[in-house]
Design a protein that fits this description.
The structure holds 2 protein chains of 2 kinds. By secondary structure, chain A is α+β, with helices and mostly antiparallel strands. Chain A has 10 helices and 8 strands. The longest helix of chain A has 28 residues. Chain B is an all-alpha fold. Chain B is built from 9 helices and no strands. In chain B, helix 4 packs across helix 7. The model of chain B has no long low-confidence stretch (mean pLDDT 87). Chain B is 73% helix and 0% strand. The chains are: A alpha+beta, B mainly alpha. Chains A and B meet through helix 1 of A and helix 3 and helix 4 of B.
Chain lengths: 272, 193
């Protein structure tokens, strides 16, 4: 190889590089798309876990929707208050307060409470077990305990303990991934305004006789909680008591509800 | 004309880039989860492959061969492919923001798809004429999309299958790719020579 070959190769490669970069430069000018700098700023502030709780595909997709379509900033349940304040400043809006959300598991049946009806040997997921009429459990409303909710949690906030998922209140952001994963709609997302939230840990619409027969920790819809609260903290409907979270305004009310809580005959009213 | 049809069918089916040469396995495993994204990536890759075959043919026969610089083909081809992907990205972003959003990260990743580089090197190796090279690029892209979409279809069904624990994920996907390749060998007699 002589010097000439080297010069030609350098020249031709450099020539091609210049030609291609010129084409790209022209294309960049011609096909330029204006991107609002706010979108970049918001994308950096958002947590980047892409949990989808806001209803958008990803954090950056949410940022685009905030800037371009004026979607409210309070949809993200994951960012802490300080970062949210920064987000409000980034788009030039007044700061709004947001209460944390939390996942409530509305079933109390641990392994020893789950009454078997058949021996389920199928795929070990709740979704599959629910397809074959409840995966061998007598209760058709309660938790089957295969942990679909545990595997989808992006924050490691829900764990199986003795056949029942437990929510770690410190880690849970209320993104709702577990709610979507649960085939029996046991998990509910609620706003937690106070130090704790009181809820009925049962989802069964079975009547009192059936519930008494198959579950020791189910709501039997006796109505004691409803009768004891003239303020209607609880309401029994379809053989199931449900707590009205909007009435749990302050810690004083929570104290009152806690007195009703201990009167529940099956101790199915829980707190987190 | 018959020659061109044979080149097209050979590139897309009988010697499919993914299933016969095992090129481009990374996107084949990575983007075959859903049919929707598989189709998107298939279309984008087909476009890049056809364009890459066209441009590299011109670069090779008009610049590299006359100047005796064939040893530079790898560097030159990689440069062409990288530029093309950049260009395609810009155009798609401007013309169809929806498609741009759907393809996401897979669009720039076409740059590192070895099937595209493989295509340009095969084209040189087999001494294709200009039109043949374009058809070859198009056929290779169609073949790549076909393999990707077939795999995505199988994997969507696989979600409900009871797979042994150690084989879950990539393991079963590679086994399936092997089976699919065996099935494609059945097309071997379609073209002789």
């Amino acid at each position: 190889m002589n010097n000439n070959t080297m010069l030609i190769s350098i020249g031709s490669m450099a020539g091609m590089a210049i030609l291609f970069s010129a084409v790209l430069a022209v294309a960049d000018k011609k096909f330029k798309v204006y991107v609002d700098p706010k979108i970049d700023e918001l994308t950096h502030l958002l947590p980047g876990v892409n949990c989808g709780a806001c209803g958008f595909l990803s954090c950056s997709d949410y940022a685009v929707h905030i800037v371009e379509q004026g979607v409210e900033l309070t949809r993200c349940k994951v960012v802490d208050d300080e970062t949210r304040e920064k987000m409000f400043k980034a788009v030039g809006k007044a700061v709004e307060e947001v209460f944390p959300h939390i996942a409530l598991v509305r079933c109390a049946a641990e392994n020893e409470h789950k009454e078997p009806r058949a021996d389920y040997k199928g795929i070990k997921t709740c979704g599959a077990a629910n397809l074959v009429n409840g995966g061998g459990m007598k209760c058709t409303f309660g938790c089957m305990g295969f942990g679909d909710c545990v595997s989808v949690c992006p924050f490691d906030a829900i764990h199986m303990e003795n056949g029942l998922p437990r929510v770690d209140a410190a880690k849970c952001t209320g993104c709702g991934a577990c709610r979507k994963a649960c085939p029996r709609n046991i998990i509910e997302i609620a706003v937690k305004k106070n130090s704790k939230i009181i809820y009925v840990a049962c989802s069964s619409n079975d009547d009192i006789l059936r519930t008494k027969e198959i579950c020791k920790v189910g709501c039997i819809a006796c109505g004691i909680c409803e009768k004891l609260s003239p303020e209607k903290f609880f309401k029994v409907e379809n053989n199931l008591s449900k707590a009205d979270y909007s009435k749990q305004k302050d810690d004083e009310t929570i104290g009152k509800i806690a007195q009703i809580q201990v009167k529940c005959p099956t101790k199915v009213i829980k707190e987190i | 004309m018959i020659d061109l049809i044979i080149i097209f069918i050979a590139a897309s089916i009988t010697s499919n880039f993914v299933l016969a040469y095992f090129l481009g396995i990374c996107p084949f495993i990575g983007v075959s989860n859903k049919i929707e994204s598989a189709v998107g990536l298939g279309v984008a890759t087909t476009f890049v492959m056809a364009m890459a075959a066209t441009v590299t043919w011109i670069v090779y026969h008009q610049i590299l061969v006359p100047f005796n610089l064939i040893f530079l083909q790898y560097a030159a081809f990689i440069m062409v492919i990288a530029c093309l992907v950049q260009f395609v990205e810009m155009v798609i972003k401007k013309i169809s923001p929806a498609l741009y959003k759907a393809l996401g990260i897979f669009l720039p990743l076409i740059t590192t798809n070895c099937a595209v580089l493989g295509l340009t090197l095969f084209m040189v190796l087999r001494n294709y004429k200009f039109v043949e090279a374009v058809v070859f690029g198009l056929g290779a892209g169609v073949g790549f999309s076909l393999a990707l979409v077939l795999m995505a279809g199988i994997r969507e069904e696989l979600e409900y299958a009871n797979i042994p624990e150690p084989l879950k994920g990539t393991g079963i996907t590679l086994i399936l790719a092997g089976m699919l390749a065996l099935a494609f060998m059945g097309f071997g007699g379609l073209i002789s020579g």
